[in-house]
Write a structure and sequence with these properties.
With 578 residues, this protein is of the alpha/beta class. The chain has 19 helices and 21 strands. Strand 2, helix 2 and strand 3 form a beta-alpha-beta unit.
Amino acid sequence: MKKLMLGNEAVARGLYEAGCGFVSSYPGTPSTEITESAAKYDEIYAEWAPNEKVAMESAFGASLAGVRSMCGMKHVGMNVAADPLFTLSYTGVNAGMIVAVADDAGMHSSQNEQDSRHYAKAAKLPMLEPSDASESLNFTKLAYEISEKFDTPVIMKMCTRVSHSQSIVELSDRTELPRKAYEKNGPKYIMMPGFAKKRHPVVEERTALLTEFAENTDINRLDEGEDSSRGFIASSTSYMYVKEVFGDKYPVLKLGMINPLPVRKILDFAASVDEVIVVEELDGFIEEHCRNIGVSRVKGKEIFGCIDELSPNKIRKAMGLEVPVKASFPEGIPARPPVMCAGCPHRGLYYVLKKLGVTVFGDIGCYTLGAVAPLQAIDTTICMGASISGIHGFNKANTFYGEKTNNKSVCVIGDSTFMHSGMTGLANVAYNESNSTVIILDNSITGMTGHQDNPTTGKNLKGEACTKINLEALCHALGIERVRVVDPYNLKECEEAVKEELAADASSVIISRRPCALLKYVKHAGAISVKAEKCVGCRSCMKVGCPAISIKDRKAVIDGTLCTGCRVCSQLCRTGAI
């Protein structure tokens, strides 16, 4: 049976067909749909973990129990999971274990363009890199075979274009495997120095065996070409682009196993062509390997650069070929900047912070959009949980050098992000008494990746009722005495709360609580309108940056198809026109 599938869906299908029984992940675009799709198979236990480190450690536990497992994350999530990753390379596995990571070249929904291939090399773990949905399914099944044959976790590297593009896959039945028995083995699984020293040579021996495997596996294959004046080496989407641009004109060495890379196969390929051109997104990972093994006539980054994702037209342009003329939008159509949705609960709170002129440490989530005009309420965004740690350091450093900033600085963090990596930062604020104000933007969901539940929502991945963590009680337990809840639709209440907590001589938490306006269960009051005869065109309502409000003929106009009736704008109208 054949079916059209997203790359992420195909990975999930591969998990199913390979007999995987346990999946734990933290949602992160472009990896999220792997776990969401896996959860649709009743034969697989699937869960959202609070963060990627927890997910990876849980997947290892399942592997130890004799169940094939997987943990999924985006590229920056690998940073969070790096601690167990490097040590799992030493311990190996019991049942097969896959680490699925999705890179985001082009930064469509990410704060950097890091290249996850370096993790595979640094941790000395095998990495497979499919180029379409069909390979995504097949490589997933192969990854389990490699994992169990070589006693190692296997990294499956996806990317935005493979994860979110569709192609035809061939479906097979599920293979039910007997659970592998768990046997106590301290020297293998207890990584204290005496045992770990003896495991490092095992890792090196395994790398040598995997390199030999890379020489012979058919996922590293040669596509013959008519013209040997040049040959291309590529993987993933770059391979697809090369084939689209050049067809069968030049030979192409297609690499499906990206770590460890073959040596003989690449040297033989290089000897068969006059010039080697490596096409790969971001860093020159394959190109560097080619140079290290003695391929002298190799080019790559000097042609294509190491910034942004590639495309067929970028390759054409870089290679001096004619680029087809694309249809363009008519002149005069304005661009639509990123903006928070109409009725977004974060808008009112951000308006207050902007009005008060405070320094705001931001975090990762849809609420990062508070940084754009007209609100421009955020000063910095680094990574998950960094807002709380950052405000602590900012205030402590300034206080140490005689400048008081705790009365004019706050941080914001979402409910899911707080559970991911904000709790330890808040414990630090309490423990070291930095007198900082932390605002938790509780919209009752993980909004940035498409409405996934988290430990504060009371529902699990399958939407079933589960334990709901109480944020107020948690903040108190972490040592914060001043904890209060506000409604971000109430500007006066928000402003009073922020002023009072900034003035207090103590660490504090404000929970701005209102569910995401896009949640299906949220019932809106209904659109409001503008009485044109009362509107004086002062544009005060425009200061909140709501996409439902515009100006026409110098009067405010509200689009009833967008407006949710939150009435934040009406609180800014001095004439009562709204």
